[in-house]
Design a protein that fits this description.
The protein is α/β, with parallel strands linked by helices and 515 residues long. It is 61% helix and 6% strand. The radius of gyration is 31 Å and the shape is elongated.
């Protein structure tokens, strides 16, 4: 007789066993895209990290450390999922000036204090307010940085030392280039730098297969190969080793924070790094359809990265639009791509530090000259001049102020101009007078009555006939400040003092509530 007893049912898998049986692909569905994108970002970031460090006057490894922290630490934190952080060309000039004035040990203190301020601002939810900074000021800041960066790196391309001030860099540049024509070493250096720039400019016209290699990496690689093959007498990067380059700031350096000069530098680092990072985040958000940036969390992430960089004595970090754009264009889907790019930088710095010693400094200078040129928004200036000349003026004055004075003062001048322009435009006022020849003169004020336009208002009112009654209609005013209110009342008393019928003021804007 056949046994027909039913087969016992298979027990359901527990959640733990189900999760453990999942493949890495199912748990990380975008791993393939993120892995490929991380390699592209690594290849873009490597020469830029080294170039920014050398141009800042610090060991090349410090730029790699900042790139590693920006990838692994800041990359793991919340904020912007596809934005990539690291050392930026936009801070090169400021870092160079800080190291020259306060010394390399103080750099760690400045960067640490910058990070602490960024964390505080993020915790206070001030990140979103950076979007209120005038775009013209930011563009002018970047243009000024670009001008100083180009001038300084042209000296590096020629193998000569650059003057300290921005004005001197520009004024003495023609003479320095003419002098270099009489030196074989300087000509070789200039030629290699110029060839690097040419590769970067022409790289976009190469076939798509060739362009799979990032332009900066190709330019540096070709320059390094040329220098080796032809035994060119050019300076190369000095290598100290990753661990030897890590120099935490000594406790004695923190006493410098009591000085106004160092505090001003910290404020400049904080404002510029934060503005550049958050403007970059807004630009990256327009490039993809994924989650939007949480500005306050991104500011905290940038602050945490800068605080760690400061403890390690490394360069400050910002979000970098070049690396971020490369990340998005390479198909990155999650923050894993930027974290992995930091891992690749760490492996390179740990396993192949000697490779840096073959990189010619003129090639790195050429990359930064090219990067500096991209910071100057020539097209933006032309379009602003056609439609918004006031904004164009703010941009140009900010840039020139940075060149002529310094980064911090230049930005403050730009901000002051932007505030003054906004206040002037907000105080627009119009006075319309209707005089029918008989009866009272009717005067209508419209717009915003502020102390900035008070002389114009009083001149127009005092020009009204003294022997005629006046009806002053204030219904068109959006705002009437205390200075204007008091001045109008005084004018009304003076106008009525000669025996004319008292001035009638109608529809006055409501006074703000007390307390």
């Amino acid at each position: 007789m056949t046994n027909t007893s039913p087969t016992p049912p298979t027990p359901p898998k527990s959640p733990a066993s189900s999760a453990s049986s999942r493949s890495p692909i199912s748990r990380f569905p975008h791993l393939r895209q993120d892995f490929a994108a991380s390699l592209v970002v690594f290849l873009v970031a490597l020469p830029l990290c080294v170039g920014v460090a050398v141009a800042s006057g610090v060991p090349a490894e410090l730029g790699l450390i900042t790139g590693i922290v920006g990838g692994i630490v800041t990359g793991l934190m919340r904020g912007s999922s596809l934005q990539v952080s690291g050392p930026a060309a936009g801070l090169t000039v400021l870092v160079f000036e800080a190291v020259r004035e306060f010394g390399l040990p103080a750099l760690g203190v400045i960067v640490l204090a910058t990070g602490a301020l960024q964390i505080l601002m993020g915790a206070l939810k001030l990140g979103r307010y950076f979007r209120a900074i005038s775009v013209s000021v930011v563009e002018g800041m970047l243009a000024g940085i670009g001008l100083v960066l180009i001038a300084g790196q042209l000296y590096a391309m020629a193998g000569t030392e650059a003057p300290a001030s921005g004005v001197a860099k520009l004024v003495e540049l023609p003479g320095a280039l003419v002098d270099s024509l009489g030196s074989t070493r300087a000509l070789a250096s200039l030629g290699l730098g110029a060839a690097t720039i040419a590769v970067l400019v022409l790289w976009k016209r190469m076939p798509s297969r060739v362009r799979s290699v990032p332009g900066p990496l190709a330019a540096v690689g070709l320059a390094t190969l040329a220098a080796l093959v032809f035994s060119m007498p050019v300076a190369t990067v000095e290598v100290k080793g990753l661990l030897d380059s890590v120099q935490p700031p000594p406790l004695s350096a923190f006493g410098d924070l009591l000085g106004l000069g160092l505090l001003g530098t910290v404020v400049a680092f904080t404002l510029i790094a934060s503005a550049e990072s958050l403007f970059s985040a807004a630009a990256v958000d327009r490039m993809h359809g994924g989650p939007r940036t949480a500005y306050d969390k991104e500011l905290v992430a940038q602050g945490a990265g800068n605080a760690l960089c400061g403890l390690l004595g490394a360069l400050p970090m910002t979000a970098v639009i070049v690396r971020s754009a490369a990340n998005v264009q390479a198909g990155a889907r999650t923050k894993a791509s930027r974290v992995l790019h930091g891992v690749w930088l760490l492996l390179f710095a740990a396993l192949l530090p000697g490779a840096l010693a073959y990189i010619p400094i003129p090639a790195l200078a050429g990359i930064l000259v090219y990067s500096g040129a991209k910071l100057i928004p020539v097209g933006q200036i032309v379009s602003l001049w056609r439609g918004h000349r006031g904004e164009a003026l703010i941009l140009v004055v900010t840039a020139l102020s940075i060149v002529a004075v310094s980064m911090f003062e230049g930005v403050l001048i730009g901000l002051a101009l932007a505030v003054a322009k906004t206040a002037w435009e907000a105080s627009h006022i119009r006075l319309d007078v209707i005089d029918k020849g008989a009866g009272p003169v009717q005067a209508h004020l419209s717009g915003n009555a502020t102390f900035l336009r008070l002389p114009k208002i009083l001149d127009s009112l005092e020009a009204l006939p003294q022997d005629r009654p006046v009806e002053l209609d204030l219904s068109g005013l959006h705002h009437l400040d205390h200075a204007c209110r008091t001045a109008l009342e005084s004018w009304a008393e003076r106008h009525s003092a000669v025996g004319t019928e008292p001035v009638r003021m109608t529809a006055e804007p409501a006074r703000p509530a007390a307390g």
